[in-house]
């Protein structure tokens, strides 16, 4: 995966655990305190090791950690180096979701070796959005649930995210919110 994800995981862990605990987590996962460069890619095993170590340190299972991290990622990206990219994505939830693949294409141009997921809005109603997520990576559906919850917060929407189907290439989600 990408150094930007690792840096966000480290930032979340710092906020929740403190510096000494994070240094211990990184050491246990086999990484130094400044091991990750935002624009670089890393083997998925490195990412999964870091996720597992953080989840253990936070005394939660990996799916729960992934959901919390997905929510955190939206805030991290919105307030950091990716703020401009998040801003041009759109000023409301449906527009933003429809522009996710365009945003990923921008990242792909900067990081040609990246393997980014795809998000497609399948159906848009007054109080729901159905989204399909496809990726060659398995096991990140809980992260996507968190991302979608984070987007609800970003756009000041009250609602819930439900995974409605899982398939070999990804999953389908329904975002239900009040208009």
Describe this structure in words.
It contains seven helices and four strands, in the order ααααααββαββ. It has helices spanning 3-17, 19-28, 44-57, 62-79, 83-88, 93-110, 141-154, and strands at 118-124, 128-134, 159-167, 170-177. It is globular.
Itemize the secondary structure elements and their pairings.
Layout: H1 3-17, H2 19-28, H3 44-57, H4 62-79, H5 83-88, H6 93-110, E1 118-124, E2 128-134, H7 141-154, E3 159-167, E4 170-177
Antiparallel strand pairs: 1-2, 2-4, 3-4
Helix pairs in contact: 1-2, 1-3, 1-4, 2-3, 3-4, 4-7
Entry summary:
The protein has helices at 3-17, 19-28, 44-57, 62-79, 83-88, 93-110, 141-154, and strands spanning 118-124, 128-134, 159-167, 170-177.
- What structural category characterises the helix and strand content? alpha+beta
The oligomerization state is: single chain
Q: Radius of gyration, rounded?
A: 16 Å
Largest sheet: 4 strands, antiparallel
Report, as a whole number of angstroms, the end-to-end distance.
35 Å
Based on Cα principal axes, name the global outline.
Answer: globular
Q: If strands are numbered along the chain, what order do they take across the biggest sheet? A: 1-2-4-3
What is the total number of structural domains?
A: 2
**CATH level-3 fold name of the largest domain:** H-NOX domain
The proportion of residues forming helix, as a percent range, comes to 40-55%
SS field, number of helical segments: 7
Q: What are the low-pLDDT stretches, counting only 5+ consecutive residues below 50?
A: none
How would you state the average pLDDT, rounded?
87
CATH architecture of the largest domain: Alpha-Beta Complex
The SSE string, one letter per element, is HHHHHHEEHEE
